[in-house]
Write a structure and sequence with these properties.
Two copies of one chain form a homodimer.
Chain A (H helix, E strand, L loop, with lengths): L7 H13 L3 H10 L4 E2 H8 L3 H13 L3 E6 L2 E6 L3 H29 L1
Antiparallel strand pairs in A: 1-3, 2-3
Chain A binds a DNA duplex through α4.
Chain lengths: 113, 113
DNA sequence: TTACTATATAACGATATAGTGATATAGTCA
DNA sequence: TGACTATATCACTATATCGTTATATAGTAA
């Protein structure tokens, strides 16, 4: 298979994975969750967002297999089950920090002129 | 800083990074590029996409610092400068493969019943 | 039963952005 | 100069999806 030939459905699959994390509110939810279990109400409080909105994002994350859901009476408890999420965020954050460092250096150099 | 308190602008920055990769056509471009330099026409041929579309995606990738641009006469040559992109794709692909394996196993188990 | 609570979902408007055709721009060559 | 080529950009349509309000659903408790 040439580099140029890659299955479109595979590309869509990968893209959809990135699309999951391309939303600040979903990142906020995942960050709030960390490695602990939280119910919807707690996530609403932690994020300051609308309950319907949180439920919708959780449904999306659940559908994608990023979180699991455990029903307990009226409460729905969510937990991150896909640790690779955090690895992805680490790579992105490292890259962003490095990029900012480079910009800082460039500015410092210009200032000397 | 509590887990729940994270700067919204930081979240937006991280999300925008993932948004870059949340588009199949951009993934296709990056995959075609790999570690070689290609001009727009070559990328149009490699992806089978519209020239205007490729140029727009390249502008987005350039603005984000993922690729660099080297003008040579009429040609514009692009090259991936942000290797972390490939690390991200690796993580995602590994995760997707694992997820498919799990589904396969689950199906095999059910079939035995 | 009724009242209450937690969560999910439907419906909607607003916004963002992908893809496309037409055109502008700039370099090359006769 | 004029014709041609490669790329960028404009204007537009179509589509996706976020956030919100209202409502449905299901469990709890009196």
């Amino acid at each position: 298979m040439k580099r140029s030939e890659i299955d479109d459905s595979a590309l869509e699959l990968i893209a959809s994975r990135f699309r999951l994390l391309a939303e600040p509110m979903r990142l906020k939810i995942l960050h709030a969750l960390g490695d602990v279990e939280m119910n919807v109400g707690e996530l609403v409080a932690a994020t300051g967002a609308n309950q319907a909105n949180i439920s919708k994002h959780l449904a999306i994350l659940l559908e994608a297999g990023v979180v699991s859901r455990r029903k307990d009476g009226l409460r729905a408890n969510y937990r991150v089950t896909d640790e690779s999420i955090f690895a992805l965020c680490d790579v992105v954050c490292s890259r962003l920090e490095r990029q900012l460092d480079l910009h800082r250096e460039a500015l410092a150099t210009i200032r000397q002129i």
